[in-house]
Amino acid sequence: MGGAVHEGASERGETMAESKAEASRGRGTDRVLDILDFLAARGTPCTVPEICVGISSPRSTTYLLIERLEARGYLEKVDNSAYQLGRSVAVLGKVAMKHLDFARFIRAAVQQLAADADQLAEFVALDSWKQLVLMAAVARRPSYLLSAEGSRHPLPRTASSRFLLRDFGRQEILDNIDERDYVLRDGSVMTPDAFIASIESARDSDVFALHGQVDPHLACIASPVLNAEGRCLATMSLVVPLVDFEGRFDFYADHTRRMAKAVSEQLSLIPAGREDILGLLLKARTD
Amino acid sequence: MGGAVHEGASERGETMAESKAEASRGRGTDRVLDILDFLAARGTPCTVPEICVGISSPRSTTYLLIERLEARGYLEKVDNSAYQLGRSVAVLGKVAMKHLDFARFIRAAVQQLAADADQLAEFVALDSWKQLVLMAAVARRPSYLLSAEGSRHPLPRTASSRFLLRDFGRQEILDNIDERDYVLRDGSVMTPDAFIASIESARDSDVFALHGQVDPHLACIASPVLNAEGRCLATMSLVVPLVDFEGRFDFYADHTRRMAKAVSEQLSLIPAGREDILGLLLKARTD
DNA sequence: GGACTTAGTCCAATATATTGGATTTGTCCA
DNA sequence: TGGACAAATCCAATATATTGGACTAAGTCC
């Protein structure tokens, strides 16, 4: 949505403009939720005009609704005239958190994936331009693998990075990744262009596998965790000894994909660009 | 609001019922927030009919609004047909919590009170039919006082209890308080009836003081922290050596009252009967 | 200090959200 | 199986929430 629109010929343009577009009225209930979602997505206080453009609603309506939300403690005015989510929302969230334990759900998913595949499973996100392992679970067999929660890896070495970097611009990627990170485990060097190309090649896939990049004896397979708009928030990933991996790509891919989808549903409403919320949700201690 | 209403004579009652009440239409935006607040106040999943009576709204409207809320992740269906607050609300709450640190505010208030009065100040709630000190702050002078965060005291000994028990029924109070708790510090025994009477006597006050009950050399003064409906959620309290207290009641009462009011504003939207939310809010670790 | 931009308020016209009640669907038990 | 009750859906009538635009207030910039 929002792509460039082909302009009609100018003489026709007038005619089309004449057609009463009859933009239908918005609904108050939707607008109220739009306002809340918008402020959550921003994360910083916003003025009423900012909110107006952010949710594209008329000024009169917006002022009215914001007044009502403020009266009920859903919004609070900070400084002079910027609003942010209010105490009612905080209380509501606390109550919601009692039932909804995101951290537990994701951990269960990681453990399930580890059990299903009988391999090391990870839940991975982007942090400071490294791959950060947020959760990891080993299968029942004892694992010699080094990956642990909290560990960071250079992005070009990881399968997950192909999805995690998908929504960044080429230049941004080139600017932020340390050039030492392009040195792979076997000592060979990947060119930034090859890396970008690799990211592009994964754009339309829902799994991506690397063999021997992290470790010469390991394969790594990842599947993206997406929000409602299709932005990649994180990945589910398996680390598999090459000896197990041969000829079983589909098996591992299927399980990884399935769990990534399940987690995506849970996290689908995290707004694009607010992956920090993911961190907050995982830190939740609910009782 | 909600006090007992004098019924008119029965024959007049009919006449009044006849008057076309012309109940004006409700507003969708309000109803949406009503639903969220109601579910937060309940804390358990509710069916649509339950919500209808809970917020007294027509069925058709309620089904419609709930459907919209569910579509946006603000509500989730559990089991077959009961709803509870959804993941959107949890995310919203997380974001709101970044700005709104209730724990910090209350702690600041307790410390302020301690500094203003130059005495031990406490933020106190009811827990398992004891008085629980949730937060405490000492004035700049070193204090020999024993009170500490997490400590529990028998209710009849405390000034705070007169407010904390205000909204409970006589029988409930009698049933739940251990009879040993009626033994005061000096060894004398307060009768349950005297305790109930004491609670009643404090009902219309916004401060209550006890001399020498907790300790023969101490006075204790408390002021209630109220929610929007006037329910007592907690108290702000000062513990003062009797030697300092003499002739300075107004000074201590004023400060205690003022801080209790300030905290009340912060907590005013905690629903009656959900004091557990207070615990959740205080535990919030926001970064 | 005057012109210009941005923020906020107010109001009448009308598109539509809300509503009661009828209807259908589901559930429970005899 | 059927009868009774509750839950959920549907629908037309109308009360009203939404809206554009006019208007005022408040900054901002030369």
Blueprint (SSEs and pairs):
Two copies of one chain form a homodimer.
Chain A: H1 10-18, H2 28-42, E1 46-47, H3 48-55, H4 59-71, E2 75-78, E3 82-85, H5 87-99, H6 102-117, E4 120-127, E5 130-137, E6 152-153, H7 161-164, H8 170-176, H9 192-202, E7 208-211, E8 218-226, E9 232-241, H10 242-245, H11 249-267, H12 276-283
Antiparallel strand pairs in A: 1-3, 2-3, 4-5, 4-9, 5-6, 7-8, 8-9
Helix pairs in contact in A: 2-4, 3-4, 6-11
Chain A binds a DNA duplex (30 and 30 nucleotides) through residues 24-29, 31, 47-49, 58-61, 63-64, 81.
Brief summary of the model shown:
The structure is a homodimer of 287-residue chains. Chain A has 287 residues and is of the alpha+beta class.
Number of H/I helices of chain A? 12
Number of strands of chain A: 9
Q: What is the level-2 CATH architecture name of the largest domain in chain A?
A: 2-Layer Sandwich
Query: What sort of overall outline of chain A do the alpha carbons produce when their principal axes are compared?
Result: elongated
